[in-house]
């Protein structure tokens, strides 16, 4: 195993060429949360929730694919295993002008992997390459892949692959090599293997150990590829450390649990600087946003569902959660709720800046 101190530190930070992105998260990264994130960070790339190709082809496309231009740059993440259906979904999505199309090869949930989507696809690099080629035939947008460093697919993969574990570095390197030959230039790698049986998605984010060095080693093996690291990254200091070895960092749960962190991440982007915004200004931005919904309290409540971490570890955190969490009084609009928060939360926390 290559060790951290054996890797050369390059000049990437000095060039300010890094990318920070916010991971696709089911039931979190909807259009409301993405709007909230864009108030906090102007440079980071935002992702949709994982959307299956079948849903795009057969479902309510406007509901699934609509976004506010304010959210850009934004990437669409698609999951599927049928290359024709995925290609059709990509073709349909062209009308929405996403900045990037991302193929999910990392979701470990039983429902996804049991249908040979998500992380289960890592067992079939050549098939994934065919999917990539089919996607590229339908768009000129960048096609990226988000995946794990490996999988433990015992009793989940087809009989011919039963009891085979794809968790060695050599398996990962081969996977990246095959996909790069198919035209993928940007890989987002979650630095844990995926256990495809017996663990929940939450447990798959916590139990398999993080193996960051293997992602760094991929960057060394493929210096021309853009390698972005994901998994367990929660602080600015951790982001800075990873960017000595890779090209980008994807933040996951930290963006939901401690979103004010995002006001600091633009410093790593090309030409970027810290987004000098206060919580007061963020809430004022949310007020303007929810005004669009008028008396539609259901949509308004949805818009506030995932902003609960704005006062993470700060005085007033509990009060903020209580104020924005339904049920609300019948005469209280979403706008009223947010204005109420501004009137009662500690001023020094509301006006804090990075």
From TrEMBL:
The active site is at 107 (proton donor). Residues 22-325 form the DUS-like FMN-binding domain. One of its GO terms (molecular function) is tRNA-dihydrouridine20a synthase activity. FMN binds at residues 77, 146, 190, 230-232, 252-253. Keywords: Flavoprotein, FMN, NADP, Nucleotide-binding, Oxidoreductase, RNA-binding, tRNA processing, tRNA-binding. SUPFAM superfamilies: FMN-linked oxidoreductases. Its cofactor is FMN. Pfam families: Dus (PF01207). The keyword tRNA-binding applies. Gene3D superfamilies: 1.20.120.1460, Aldolase class I (3.20.20.70). It catalyses: 5,6-dihydrouridine(20a) in tRNA + NADP(+) = uridine(20a) in tRNA + NADPH + H(+); 5,6-dihydrouridine(20) in tRNA + NADP(+) = uridine(20) in tRNA + NADPH + H(+); 5,6-dihydrouridine(20) in tRNA + NAD(+) = uridine(20) in tRNA + NADH + H(+); 5,6-dihydrouridine(20a) in tRNA + NAD(+) = uridine(20a) in tRNA + NADH + H(+). InterPro entries: Aldolase_TIM, DUS-like_FMN-bd, DUS_fam, DusA, tRNA_hU_synthase_CS. Its EC number is 1.3.1.91. The record marks 104, 202, 205, 318, 321 as: Interacts with tRNA. It comes from the Bacteria. Catalyzes the synthesis of 5,6-dihydrouridine (D), a modified base found in the D-loop of most tRNAs, via the reduction of the C5-C6 double bond in target uridines. Specifically modifies U20 and U20a in tRNAs. Belongs to the Dus family. DusA subfamily. Belongs to the dus family. This is tRNA-dihydrouridine(20/20a) synthase. It comes from Herbinix hemicellulosilytica. The lineage of its organism: Bacteria, Bacillati, Bacillota, Clostridia, Lachnospirales.
């Amino acid at each position: 195993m290559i060790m951290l101190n054996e890797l050369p530190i390059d000049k990437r930070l000095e060039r300010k060429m890094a990318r920070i992105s916010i991971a696709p998260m089911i039931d979190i990264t909807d259009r409301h949360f993405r709007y909230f994130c864009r108030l906090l960070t102007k440079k980071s790339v935002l992702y949709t929730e994982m959307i299956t190709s079948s849903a795009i082809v057969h479902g309510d496309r406007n509901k699934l694919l609509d976004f506010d231009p304010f959210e850009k740059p934004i990437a669409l993440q698609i999951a599927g295993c049928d290359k024709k259906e995925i290609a059709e979904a990509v073709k349909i999505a062209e009308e929405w002008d996403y900045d990037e199309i991302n193929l999910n090869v990392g979701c470990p949930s039983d429902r996804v992997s049991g249908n040979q989507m998500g992380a289960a696809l890592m067992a079939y690099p050549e098939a994934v390459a065919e999917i990539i080629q089919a996607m590229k035939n339908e768009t000129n947008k960048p096609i990226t892949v988000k995946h794990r460093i490996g999988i433990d697919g015992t009793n989940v993969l087809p009989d011919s692959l039963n009891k085979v574990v794809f968790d060695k570095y050599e398996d990962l390197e081969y996977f990246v090599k095959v996909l790069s030959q198919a035209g993928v230039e940007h890989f987002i790698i979650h630095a844990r293997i995926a256990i495809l049986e017996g663990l929940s998605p939450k447990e798959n984010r916590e139990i398999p150990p993080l193996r960051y060095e293997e992602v760094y080693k991929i960057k060394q093996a493929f210096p021309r590829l853009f390698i972005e690291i994901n998994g367990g990254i929660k602080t600015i200091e951790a982001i800075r450390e990873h960017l000595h070895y890779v090209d980008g960092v994807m933040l996951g749960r930290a963006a939901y649990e401690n979103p004010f962190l995002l006001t600091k991440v633009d410093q790593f982007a090309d030409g970027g600087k810290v987004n000098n915004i206060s919580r007061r200004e963020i809430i004022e931005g949310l007020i303007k946003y929810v005004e669009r919904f008028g008396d539609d309290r259901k949509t308004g409540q949805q818009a506030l569902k995932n902003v609960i971490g704005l006062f993470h570890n700060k005085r007033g955190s509990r009060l903020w959660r209580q104020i924005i969490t339904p049920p609300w009084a019948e005469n209280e609009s979403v706008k009223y709720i947010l204005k109420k928060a501004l009137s009662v939360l500690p001023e020094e926390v509301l006006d804090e800046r990075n």
